[in-house]
Specification:
Elements (H helix, E strand, L loop, with lengths): L2 H50 L3 H17 L7 H12 L12 H43 L9 H27 L3 H12 L15 H4 L1 H30 L1 H19 L5 E4 L5 E5 L39 H4 L18 H9 L25 H15 L1
Antiparallel strand pairs: 1-2
Helix pairs in contact: 4-5, 4-8, 5-6, 5-8
Length: 397
């Protein structure tokens, strides 16, 4: 099984296991508290109905008024400042849900706005994250150079430490500011900052919703918007180092497999006919590119060269063929001994004589098929025939 498939299956199993563990933990932590709150609310509802003698329908009307008026107590949400805050939550995919469009035009424009704005925001934050990582690497290199360290280049571990520190400082500073302006506890402020910067955006805690802050505190609105944008850029820098490294593993493995396949294709050579090895043994049954075995069962064959092949239908008993040019299979042939090192009985003139007879074609004419002489006209001993084969291959190479 490929490494990419194993990694994908492992990620699926780990993700579902993580979801099951999370569900079990949240069930243990929150289910009892939810049950107690529900019972307390039911008791309060029954007490109010009995005390003031209110019908169930009137109580539902009061409940609706209370729920709908909650957002209006925070001030006007759709003036330019509030609308800009809403557009920011859409583009960054935070989606608090504190204010939602109620008109058909507003809902339609929200969908169209999100289709264009969300990819634009993701690309922007990703680009800012890359610049932050590059700036961090320059700072680390300058500091190490000033300290005269042996290794000045910033590694991935160094950059992860830097962006993690920046993220922690951003959350800690933002939590202190929100705790002061909103009146939240510091832990709740840290929780709000984390939920915001990770774009989870539950909406249970939303800034700028007290004392009409959207219209009365422009400096606080500016701080909240800068915090969201800058914090998301820092988080994008962290994701660029942590998450994208694992995401690109499949791409790297696929490229490596393609490179290996191409390399194997370059060195793969198919031979047809009988092949005499350097130790004198005969290997037969090799198949050519057309998938047919040339052991005498076929009546025709095609040469792989691009020129006009001569005598393409010859099928003699001692015929030997090479499907590709010798330059493509030189690494597969046994080491050829030069002609002068062999006790070859025939001189150069005899080879030319054989060539003139048509028993050996020239490699310079583009024909990649070596034809042996007719054994009926030339009687050769087995070892002499082997030497002649090797010598002819030496001449062609």
């Amino acid at each position: 099984m490929k490494k990419q498939n194993v990694r994908t299956i492992s990620l699926i199993v780990c993700t579902f296991t993580y979801l099951l563990v999370g569900a079990a933990v949240f069930d243990a932590l929150e289910s009892e508290t939810e049950k107690r709150r529900w019972e307390a609310l039911q008791d309060a509802e029954d007490m109010i109905i009995r005390k003031y003698n209110i019908s169930l329908e009137d109580f539902k009307v009061m409940e609706t008024v209370v729920l709908k008026s909650e957002s209006h107590k925070a001030g006007q949400q759709w003036k330019f400042t509030g609308a800009f805050y809403y557009a920011t939550t859409v583009l960054t995919t935070i989606g608090y849900g504190h204010s939602t469009p109620s008109t058909v035009g507003g809902k339609l424009f929200t969908m169209c706005y999100a289709i264009v704005g969300i990819p634009l925001g993701l690309v922007m934050f990703q680009s800012i994250g890359e610049r932050v990582n590059r700036l961090s690497s320059y700072v680390i290199k300058a500091v190490r150079s000033s300290l005269r360290c042996k290794r000045t280049v910033a590694s991935e571990v160094d950059l992860i430490c830097v962006v993690t520190t920046l993220s922690s400082l951003t959350i800690a500073g933002g939590a202190a500011a929100f705790s002061k302006f909103e009146g939240w506890s510091y832990f709740d402020s840290v929780y709000y900052c984390f939920i915001t910067l990770t774009t989870i955006g539950f909406g249970d805690m939303v800034a700028l919703q007290r004392d009409n802050a959207l219209n009365r505190k422009p400096e606080y609105v500016m701080f909240a918007l800068i915090f969201i944008l800058f914090g998301l850029a820092i988080v994008a820098a962290s994701l660029n180092l942590l998450v994208l490294r694992f995401v690109t593993m499949n791409t790297e493995d696929e490229r490596r497999d393609e490179a290996q396949a191409m390399q194997a294709l370059q060195v793969a050579v198919k031979l047809e006919g009988d092949v005499i090895t350097s130790n004198g043994s005969i290997l037969s049954g090799y198949e050519g590119h057309d998938g047919q075995s040339l052991n005498g069962s076929t009546n025709s064959s095609m040469c792989s060269c691009h020129c006009m092949c001569l005598n393409g239908n010859r099928h003699k008993k001692n015929q030997y063929k090479l499907r590709r040019s010798p330059t493509h299979i030189r690494h597969l042939l046994p080491e050829v001994v030069p002609m002068q090192d062999l006790n070859y009985d025939y001189d150069t003139q005899s080879l030319h004589t054989l060539a003139d007879r048509g028993t050996m074609d020239s490699s310079y004419m583009g024909v990649d098929m070596v034809d042996m002489a007719d054994t009926a006209s030339i009687e050769l001993r087995p070892h002499t025939l082997l030497k002649r084969n090797v010598s002819q291959l030496s001449i062609r190479i």
